[in-house]
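Extended Data, panel c. Modelled sequence:
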Amino acid sequence: MSLLDRDKWQEIMFALKKNKLRTFFTAFGVFWGIFMLIIMLGSGRGLHNGVNQGMGDMANNAMFMWTMRTTVPYKGFPQGRRYNFRNSDTQALIDNIPELEHIAPRLQVFRGGNGDNNVVRGERTAAFSIQGDYPAYNLIDPVNIHQGRFVNKLDINDKRKVIVIGTRVREEMFDADEDPIGEYLRIQGVYFKVVGVFSSKKNDQQAEQENMQIFMPFTTLQHTYNFGDIVGWYSMTAKEEYAASVVLDKAKEIMKSRHSIAPNDNRAIGSFNVEAEFVKMTNLFNGIDALIWIVGIGTLLAGVIGVSNIMLIVVKERTKEIGIQRAIGANPMSIKSQIVIESVFLTTIAGYIGLTIGVGILELINYFLIESGAGTGMFNHPEVDFGKAIAALIILVICGALAGLIPAQRAVQIKPIDALRDE
């Protein structure tokens, strides 16, 4: 049977229209299966997007390392000793860890616990967190630069008194129509020139906190506020071909050796491995996707089985018609193809409608999330990957063909003489 055979398509449409209610409920099972699959896939992606947005564009092979009290006595030093990373540690890490890609020493000056304001401009005062950073930090945990620039190498080398301010800092310290670039802020009694304005790439409270920060050159913060050669903590990334855990383990081993920490003191150095958490998150969402496909395809198969059962009933009702076709010379393949195409047509149309409505509802949900501002939480921009949508349609067509095979086989097994006697 040719797909362009007009007479055959008329027969298919006549058969479907003959019992509209039965056709509707048969198609609804397939529609509901593909509709639920699309909604679940979109919801899973929305959850995934929300979690990813919470991390911003942070490198997924990043790691952080900071000092804590020692918990094991060692080389005459008591338990509970405090210590600090130093500038010389930075070079030691660079020299001894070939797997290291980026390293950014950091210092942070928090606003006073008593609520004292530390930033002044004219009659405006406010309290913000001050960060001392290297340019590499913006490669590890990037921010959006809206005006000007980030801290650069010359700022570090020359200990320049320049700062990059968050959007909330700009709103608090400047008028809406003011250009902050080139203006000065007084931070704990020292004037700094604004060279850039940034915003966080994260969401919710994380973004709010980052937008209230001020970045200045690491060396400037050390020199201006008498931190000497103290390093607060390290942000690092591993080269692409290496695991972050390899770099982190080596970094801890080096720091323990340099600061006389017992090799078995695993609590003296705090750390956070973004790569390990990213792998856990990826595995979690892969599991969610697999569960969605299992449930979705199961629901879809239930609808397809319904189509197959209805097609068996249709074949039984059309026994005499099939007998006449066989008697006048119709070959078995022609009879088979008619039943299979009818099944594929029904499942494809129902599935396409389910796919279209499912995608439409996801877009509508996304629109309301954006309009209401709720899309900045753990659920953001629900969507269906184009490849997955195509895969769902292909699965649907295959299932439609399979649903028609059993009824088609039943149809060709009917002997013409028996079919003509059927009442």
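DSSP finds 14 helices and 14 strands in the chain. This feature is highlighted in the accompanying rendering.
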